[in-house]
Specification:
The complex is a heterodimer of chains A (489) and B (317). Chain A is an alpha+beta fold and 489 residues long. In chain A, strand 12 and strand 13 form a beta hairpin. Chain A contains 15 helices and 26 strands. With 317 residues, chain B is an all-alpha fold. The two termini of chain B are 17 Å apart. The chains are: A alpha+beta (489), B mainly alpha (317). At the A-B interface, helix 10, strand 10 and strand 12 of A face helix 1, helix 4 and helix 5 of B.
């Protein structure tokens, strides 16, 4: 009996007309850089592929690669659904993105230094002063605080999308970006599944990420490689706990919770079986308002009393620095192109999505008039918190939201709904297009470093544009294919 | 090592050892179901619940009176086995113990190897997916044997895939202190409540099976059952893994590895407590009755636990 191969499934792949497809330029016509990939991939028998897909889920389940969902009633661990067809990216596209991200993180670090020191950009009226001072994530406590090497953001996970017009930055995620562990474990599973494809296609490796992350953290301490680095987690009930465990064990650093640290004479110590040990660098995965109940939110049980004071004295490094969230505020985001021009005197390489600030009467009016076609976000939110998606809302929901918006316009921005690009996904017994986004992980010290890849989130429901894992989203591996086999630094 | 993590590792193996011990007891007890009288079975259940110092569901055990029928006895066994295996509200059920062990592992995952985590996670998920009707009555024995093997596999993986630093040491401490306490408790129950009125061969074999020590006994003493030999072996035979002596030796060696780094060795409190327990088990003649002696062993082992918590897991500036 003849068995079907993946090639025959791809033959029936139905492109969506209004969106950019990452792998096909026209029906049955794959993009040129994917040629070697399809030569290998198309020969895989369908039933073998189905087994691999099932095994991958088993692999994730048994290794506990899950994320936690907590609602009022119960806690539950969920699997991150992985689609085993990778999203492919040409090296040229990757190179473009890399340059764009480098420019962006440089400008953001200069901007953060400026607003916490000289405020020149505010004095020059490029960014309105009241916007910064009213921002929820602006930390007045950080004013004039020296930051090691002037690096405020040493790591971020920028959300990028692609339309027929090109790449757009959706969010900068400068506070506690997550997902790098899923990028790495997803790659581990894919290598296991597709050894021969990996051998034949020149897929760029990403395995050095944890080493690069560790080097970035060392760089921030005066002790460099001798520094005692720890990863501070809110604990096992945090949705990204798996990631904290993964990164700590891969880097070989201690994973600590607030209760494991204590501050004495402005020095941070961890409580060990052999007594107290000094800590030099804290890679914090706790939002900065929870870091220290004495300096920020007094009701925080996750943080360490006195930690911020130790940070101010310079005896310990926090990465990212407290107060970086001001730069990924949704309203400040709309000024990033201006910020890039102001500090670097360059045009932005990566575009922003057109953003309407509802604090401006004209733009509020436009938003209210076109609510059913817009996405409205709260300025300080992250991870889809409080997001309103016009095309998915009922008439009643839209009316209710309009009232909410009018009562507090400063808290909102709106953006057009973007037709996110699609990539082939294995759904049921067929291969169908699904919308995807892309989060590369940028590390910044004396230089920028990022591994060629990232987390690709997929909206697994047909036609859905919501890629969030809590709302039916899954993930894919991203393969950056370099047909010219150049050396990558 | 972070104190909280050391504590997680210590409790992880304490609960794993507890799950293994309960599985052992249940495995023996369900094997008796095919032949033993309701009264004998009832004694078995009494032992099990008494040695854990817990009450059975419903408050009392049936099967004490001769008029209890076999059918009733089986129904009773079903409830008791279910309670000690799957009941989430019962902190000593096999499922609860594995769940707590897994939660401790989850909180210190970066300190154990991937294969250890994967093995523990898989064991828990398999047990959680099982239900009493799936295993009753024909698959009971396989079920407990598999659970015990899975836990031994975890220990094997920790022996072979884990860096032999403090993390390993705290796993060992938890594992052997729990074993010591469980065996002492079982022996004490036996001595206090059974030995006085019945010292049959069958009870001795049951006791050995509960401790997973029947094969060792035959190797050392042949099949000739003598109470003095059974007690001697379970108390002070250094080569029998379930003996109190074996456990205390393991604890002593582990503490030697942990403590040379600290200045207090060998004068620290934990080490002194272990030395005292070792002397009592190994060298000193038993003073008073055997029951009093075992009661004393239990008290001393509880002190070792408290000393471990105070010395390694709690801090003051």
């Amino acid at each position: 009996m003849q068995t079907n191969t993946l090639g025959s499934l791809f033959k029936n792949y139905q492109l969506k007309t209004d969106t950019y497809d990452e792998m096909f330029s026209a029906p049955a016509q794959s993009r040129s850089f994917t040629e070697t990939f399809f030569q290998e991939f198309n020969d895989i028998p369908e039933d073998v592929f189905k087994n691999l897909q099932a095994n991958t889920s088993q692999f994730f389940l048994h290794h506990g690669i899950t994320f936690n969902i907590y609602d009022e009633k119960q806690k539950s661990e969920r699997l991150f659904p992985i689609d085993c067809i990778p999203r492919l990216m040409s090296y040229e596209d990757w190179d473009f993105i890399k340059k764009g991200l480098e420019q962006r993180i440089q400008a953001i670090n200069l901007f953060l230094w400026d607003i916490y020191h000289k405020e020149q950009i505010l004095k020059d009226n490029v960014v309105p002063k009241d916007l910064i001072y009213s921002c929820k994530n602006f930390r007045l406590q950080m004013k004039k605080v020296p930051v090691p090497e002037d690096v405020y953001v040493s790591l971020c996970g920028t959300d990028l999308v692609r339309t027929k017009e090109g790449f757009f930055v959706l969010e900068d995620n400068l506070r506690v970006p997550s997902g790098s562990s899923y990028m790495l474990t997803c790659r581990q599973a894919m290598i296991k599944n597709f050894l021969s494809v990996f051998r034949k296609c020149n897929i760029q490796p990403i395995e050095s990420y944890c080493l690069e992350l560790l080097k970035t953290l060392f760089y921030l301490s005066a002790k460099k490689e001798e520094a005692q680095v720890v990863l501070l987690t809110p604990g096992p009930y945090n949705s990204a706990y798996f990631e904290h465990v993964f990164l700590a064990s891969q880097m070989g650093v201690e994973l600590v919770q607030g209760q494991d640290l204590q501050v004495h004479n402005n020095t941070v110590y961890m409580k060990t079986t052999q007594g107290l040990k000094k800590v030099d660098v804290i890679y914090s995965r706790i939002n900065d308002d929870f870091l220290d109940p004495l300096s920020f939110r007094p009701d925080s049980y996750l943080g360490v009393p006195g930690l911020f004071s130790a940070y101010q004295s310079g005896s310990v490094v926090l990465s990212n620095a407290p107060g970086t969230g001001v730069a990924d505020d949704k309203a400040v985001y709309s000024y990033i192109p201006e910020i890039i021009r102001y500090y670097l005197e360059q045009d932005p390489i990566l575009s922003n999505v057109k953003t309407y600030l509802c604090r401006r009467p004209k733009e509020l009016k436009h938003t209210l008039k076109n609510l059913e076609n817009l996405v409205v976000k709260t300025v300080g939110g992250a991870g889809g918190d409080g997001m309103f998606i016009g095309p998915m809302a009922s008439k009643k929901e839209t009316e209710e939201f309009a009232l909410k918006l009018q009562s507090d316009p400063e808290n909102y921005v709106s953006q057009p709904v973007l037709p996110l690009s699609t990539s082939p996904c294995f759904v049921g017994d067929t291969v169908e297009p699904r919308h995807v986004d892309f989060r590369p992980f940028v590390l910044y010290s004396d230089k920028m470093s990022l591994v060629p890849g990232g987390l690709c989130r997929v909206a697994l429901k047909k036609n859905s544009l919501v890629v969030n894992s809590s709302q039916g989203g899954g993930a894919k591996d991203i393969w950056v294919i370099d047909n010219k086999k150049r050396e990558v630094s | 090592m972070i104190s909280r993590v050391a504590s997680n590792l210590y409790w992880m193996t304490r609960y794993l050892e507890r799950a293994k011990f309960i599985s052992q007891l249940l495995n023996v007890q369900v094997n008796h179901l095919s032949e033993d009288s309701p009264q004998t079975l009832s004694i078995g259940w009494y032992w099990i619940f008494k040695s854990f110092d817990i009450s059975p569901p419903g408050g009392e055990l049936l099967g004490n009176s001769p008029q209890d029928s076999d059918d009733f006895c089986l129904a009773d066994a079903y409830t008791l086995v279910d309670h000690l295996t799957f009941e989430k509200e019962q902190p000593l059920s096999v499922l609860s113990c594995l769940q707590i062990a897994r939660e401790n592992a989850r909180q210190s995952r970066e300190q154990i190897s991937n294969s250890m985590w994967s093995q523990l996670n898989r064991t828990y998920l398999q047990l959680e997916a099982s239900k009493m009707p799936d295993i009753w009555p024909h698959k009971m024995s396989d079920f407990y044997s598999d659970t015990i093997s899975s836990i031994y596999l975890f220990y094997g993986l920790s022996d072979n895939t884990l860096y032999k630093g403090e993390g390993f040491d705290f796993l060992q401490l938890g594992r052997f202190l729990e074993r010591l306490q469980q065996t002492a408790s079982l022996l004490e129950t036996h001595v206090k409540f059974i030995m006085g009125w019945k010292e049959g061969e069958k009870e001795l074999i049951s006791l050995l099976l509960y401790c997973d020590a029947f094969d060792f006994y035959r190797q050392i003493y042949t099949l000739d059952m003598k109470l003095s030999n059974v007690i001697q072996m379970l108390l002070s035979h250094p080569e029998v893994p379930c003996s109190l002596c074996f456990s205390v030796n393991q604890i002593e060696n582990t503490l030697k590895r942990i403590d040379p780094k600290s200045s207090s060795y060998p004068f620290n409190t934990v080490y002194k407590s272990v030395q005292s327990l070792k002397t009592a088990i190994t060298y000193k003649p038993i003073e008073g009755t055997l029951a009093e002696f075992l009661e004393n062993i239990k008290t001393q082992s509880q002190k070792i636990h408290e000393d471990i918590v105070n010395s390694y897991f709690q801090h003051s500036m």
